[in-house]
Design goal:
Layout (H helix, E strand, L loop, with lengths): L9 E5 L2 E2 L6 E2 L7 E2 L8 E9 L2 E4 L3 E3 L6 E7 L3 E3 L3 E10 L5 E2 L2 E8 L8 E8 L2 E2 L3 E10 L6 E8 L15 E3 L4 E4 L3 E7 L3 E3 L3 E10 L10 E7 L9 E7 L9 E9 L9 E9 L14 E9 L6 E7 L9 E10 L9 E9 L4 H6 L6 E7 L8 E9 L9 E10 L1
Parallel strand pairs: 9-18, 20-26
Antiparallel strand pairs: 1-2, 1-5, 3-4, 5-6, 5-7, 8-10, 10-15, 11-14, 12-13, 12-16, 16-17, 16-18, 19-21, 21-24, 22-23, 22-25, 25-26, 27-28, 28-31, 29-30, 29-32
């Protein structure tokens, strides 16, 4: 080490302590300091001062690194192309440019950035390095990396060494580097096309729905997926929609390839069905089994006008029973059932007989029928055509406890059993 030239006696210092010639150290009062058989304890900062009647002069500080490594990544070489969710082999080198051996383990982090400067870098994960790199040596590593599911296009790989700061080094400023060459990340893109169905239908009717699926992405679709048909009230959402059919997708599907479907579905009818405009929707890969570069084209819809079919309408009336009865007595109840609807009522359905106060209105009874004792539930097993009637007679038993006084029987048609 060489300090400043001065007419005064120079004095060398190590980490703020004056040095003296002794054993391995010489030249402590000269412009050149010599250290032989360097030890770990010799590492640190050195500078020399000199003073005379005119003042004191101090040299710049020199840092002596003893036995420390300095690792850095370089020559990061990704493949030219990759596919969403698939594995690739990333080749890179680690150099140790200092006199100390770099002993693992430490963690290496792998990054995917928008450019060679690391903009928008995405963490792909870490891998442990468990070997050693001798002083002034390099190693080549081939690392298996899983590509993310949602990043595609042109990207650059990066490597950061020793992310956990497990390895003492001369400097950490050179521990990250990015590849010069980019990787083009591709993926499949399943697009729905050509959805067709009748413009109108009745509830309960079976119709034919056709659609096509094409992989317009640059990579093959190799995962399993399902195609589904829905009926909903909106054209762009499956929320609240009714699933009509599920079909297995045609995998694998090469880039540019496609297939067509033609499926019969039944428009379900419920008690809440109403006439109006609804939407038939075809959806591909609702469960996200296939990674894609675009999910916006996985749903296609067309309107369909739905109407209610002719329905039966059963009306109970002409209820009669004995004028007097006692608790526990079995007695006959007679009533008529008429189908005033425009379609036949297909058996079976059930009719329920209640015992209610004579002054109870029909509206009050329908509002809270469960508050009154049921005398029996009877199943009708014969169809009833439109406009037809039938007289029903059933035996019921008056409860031993409960209502008394002026009572009467009430009948409820409770639909299909």
């Amino acid at each position: 080490m060489t300090g400043v030239q001065t007419c005064a006696l120079p004095i060398w210092q190590h980490s703020g302590t004056n040095l003296f010639d002794y054993g391995r150290i010489s030249g402590t009062h000269s412009t050149t300091l010599s250290i032989s058989n360097v030890l770990i304890s010799d590492g640190g900062s050195y500078f020399v001062t000199a003073s005379n009647a005119y003042g004191i002069a101090t040299s710049s500080t020199t840092v002596l690194h003893v036995g420390f490594p300095d690792i850095a990544p370089y020559a990061i070489t990704p493949p030219a192309t990759a596919t969403l969710g698939q594995t690739i082999q990333l080749v890179f080198n680690i150099t140790n440019s200092a006199s100390g051996r770099a002993d693992g383990p430490w963690l290496n982090q792998f990054l995917l950035a928008q450019d060679t400067n690391g903009s928008g870098a995405y963490n792909l994960g870490t891998a442990s390095f468990t070997n050693s790199i001798p002083a002034f040596s390099s190693v080549t590593i081939t690392q298996t990396v899983i590509m993310p599911a949602n990043i595609f296009g042109t990207r650059y790989f990066g490597v950061t060494l020793d992310t956990g700061n497990d390895l003492p080094e001369i400097t950490k400023t050179n521990n990250t580097a990015y590849s010069v060459n980019s990787v083009q990340i591709n993926g499949a893109d399943l697009a729905l096309q050509q959805l067709g169905a009748p413009g109108s239908a009745q509830y309960g009717q079976s119709i034919s729905v056709s659609f096509a699926v094409t992989n317009i992405g640059p990579a093959s679709a190799i995962a399993g997926w399902n195609d589904q048909i829905y009926l909903g009230s909106t054209s762009n959402s499956l929320s609240g929609a009714t699933l009509l059919a599920t079909l297995a997708g045609s995998a694998p599907l090469a880039s540019g390839a496609g297939y067509a479907r033609n499926q019969s579905v039944t428009i379900p009818q419920t008690s809440s069905s109403t006439a109006g405009t609804f939407y038939l929707m075809a959806a591909v890969d609702v469960g996200n089994g296939q990674l894609e570069i675009n999910k916006a084209n996985n749903l296609l819809s067309i309107p369909i006008a739905l109407s209610l079919p002719p329905l039966p309408d059963l009306v109970a009336g002409q209820v009669s029973s004995p004028t007097n009865a006692t608790a526990g007595q079995s007695l006959p109840v007679m009533w008529a059932v008429t189908n005033i609807g425009s379609a036949a009522a297909n058996a079976p359905w059930q009719e329920k007989v209640y015992l209610v106060p004579a002054g109870l209105t029909l509206q009050q009874f329908n509002t809270n029928a469960a508050a009154y004792p049921a005398l029996g539930v009877f199943t009708c097993t014969n169809n009833l055509g439109s406009g037809a009637s039938v007289i029903r007679t059933q035996q019921v038993t008056v409860p031993l406890t409960g209502l008394a006084g002026d009572l009467r029987a009430a009948i409820i048609e409770i639909g299909r059993s």
